[in-house]
User: Fold Integrase from Enterovibrio qingdaonensis.
Amino acid sequence: MKKIEPILDSSEIKKSIALFKQGQVELEAWQTLTNNLYSHNSLLSFQNDWITFVNFCRDVNVCPLPAAVTAVRRFVEHSAKTRKAASIKRYVITLSLMHRVHSLPDPTRHREVRFTLNRLYQEKSDDAGQANAFMLSHLSELTARLGNSEKLKDVRDLLIWTLCFEGMLKRSELAALPYNAPRETEEGFVLAVDDQLIALSPEAKEQVDKWFEMSGIIDGPLLRGINKHGHLSDAPMDHSSIYRVFRRAATELGLEGSLTFSGQSPRVGASQELADAGKTIKEIQHQGRWKSPAMPAQYVGNKTASSEAMAKFKRKIEKD
Assistant:
């Protein structure tokens, strides 16, 4: 966790608490709160995690900031029913940050919360294992099943699976896509992710066009939540929604119980497909926008290269 100077002025603390208790707060406010020390994707993660916590607090009628120790413990236990250990750890980091930066006691440090976390981490110790690979064959079958559907949710979910696989997108990248991320260029139809242009297939273009036609989106986030009545939200999708979309993929394929897809699954599958096509670890690393070759090496089963790359990357961090 980076060293962020807390707010010390009592009136500023009160004003900031009132703002963030709303849950949905613009990224500019997060940038100011964190002293401009975090990347865009990190701020998106903080934003989504905080919205998740505030929504939970509203559901159980408790205050999110400052949060009581019991509220945090209940939130952790509630999240553990559907989320993996890594997600829970990230939630705790966000909650800790929010309290420390507002000069408030940190409820995540309380022994009651720490005991609950340690117990859950032990129960979820297998979460650290590699995600199941979402392969091209899975995407092709889902396209055959849902490609002609006129249901907005089907169109959105198929587009999510396609973009995540073809673009090797992380969940944070997917959630951050603006409406104009897919675009026509002289080189063809591409997806803009940060400063990189990723080539998309003709099938992906058809899905993008269908999504725009049915959703009517002309600005804001590209991918959004859809409520039980089929109404489209103005807000981008959060990590929980993305998780449910990939859980649905396994259900549609009749694999529920034998395979569990997560937001990481398309990156695993795409890495393996590229390796099978003769791409090097370095080329896969570049295409997936990894800082180190360790993860793509692990995904394609090269454990020796993965260990060497991770050790080299850690030495570089320590040196920096």
